[in-house]
Design brief:
The complex is a heterodimer. In chain A, about 50% of the residues lie in helices and about 15% in strands. Chain A is α+β, with helices and mostly antiparallel strands. In chain A, a hairpin with a 2-residue loop joins strand 4 and strand 5. In chain B, about 55% of the residues lie in helices and about 10% in strands. Chain B is elongated, with a radius of gyration of 32 Å. Classes of the chains: A alpha+beta, B alpha+beta.
Chain lengths: ~180, ~350
Amino acid sequence: MTLATPVGARDHVQGSASARVTLLEYGDYECPGCGRAYPIIKAVQKAFGPNLRFVFRHFPLVTSHPHAVKAAEAAEAADAQGKFWAMHDRLFEHQDALDDMDLRRHARKIGLDLERFEQDLRGQALQARVRSDAEEGLRSGVNGTPTLFINGVGYSGKLEREALVLALARAALKAAPPVPA
Amino acid sequence: MKTEGKPMATQSVHQLSESARRAIGRVTFVRLTIYYICAGAVLLLITGLFPQGATGPAPPPAPTDMGGALSWIRGQLSLFPHGTPVWVDAAVQMISAMLLVLPMAFVYVRTRTRVKYDHSIIQTVIVLPIVVCAILVVVRNSLALAFSLAGIVAAVRFRNNLKESGDAVYIFGSIGMGFATGIHALGVAAVLSVFFVVLELALWKFNFGAEFEHTFARLCMPSGADLAAISSATGEPLPSANLKEEPEREDDAARNKLVRIYVDQVEQARPLVEAVLERDAKSYALAGTRPSDGGPGILEYRVRIRKRVDLDTLRERLLREGAPHVVAADESSSTERL
């Protein structure tokens, strides 16, 4: 499985483009598996520091997770105010509280302009953005969440910290070392 | 491996004892006080409703006679003015025993650690005075019953190892409570309960006698004496560093880490990694290595991080100063060694 759409300017990215390895996740805020992966990815980010770039794309599973699309749109609405990652973290840390009232509460907690947040949520642009992520995922062969790609190649190992660190380290060493500044 | 810090000999014993001081807390104090006030009110009420023996229809007291007034009130309150039935009297005594022993059980929990805690002691401390009280109600003034009881007790063998010698005090306290309530000495039982609770909490709070040097200094040395002075006074060598073992143990989990460092070439990365550890770790030891056979090499270290550095900072320095050989530095949670 390889990534059909490379990481671009419209993606949500943590870390530098010059990082030795890129970890991309197709995720769903209501998916318990993604909830379990969340602290693992956080730990992996700490372990690799500047050597890792993390990218998150939406892949809400609408049939089994009724709040997933709205939660993804809420993350995009937070992005419009420059707080995508704050909302991303909050949604994964409160996976059992994703209804409309909860999303409003999360927005208030991370300091968003509520009026603008609700206005953005009512618009069509965010829905299109989330749908576009999901369609790109389908083109890359994603059929469930969480699905991880390491340097554009699908990760099929165990979703455990040590296994993931090892796979990322292997990928990082395959890539050319960064040029010292 | 290096150690750092002030030499033990120059530390004041009073500084040492600071670590051992425990806080009882306002919640404990308030709860115990409220409990005793409520229990006292309940006991006054039930002993008024069910007094021992007959109260009879007492005549109204003279306005200046306080004792007579109280007797009159109790006579008016009493549900059984011609004598409380034995079973009701026994129930009152047992309830009194239970009410007065509960704070002792509370103090047992408050003053124990998870390791020293024994749940069977709590249950014993609560039930034992009720049983003892019941036995005394049965035996009462009968010498024959007392001898029978002695015979029965001799026939039953009790064998139980207490986790803590201090637990025995609770058992004895609980028996004392049963005796006091069993002979209608409610006042004695109440005093025993309060005194026991206050003394146990005070001894626990100040950890009295736990540190020999501190206790010796308090009792036998001028104030401000240091360990060296105590050593010469007792003629014994200085205590070892494990004097501060307990507070350090809490810190250990945060400072002692097993760190896995993922590198391209083990031999080239190791000196860079160890240069960082030399500076930022109080001590470290290589726990295992995995050579880089086509994949990442791994260096695994047991590290005791210095207090001024946290794990994230150490990781960040390993990545920066170990570049380009170090690609990741992760805290290992695996029990599987390399």
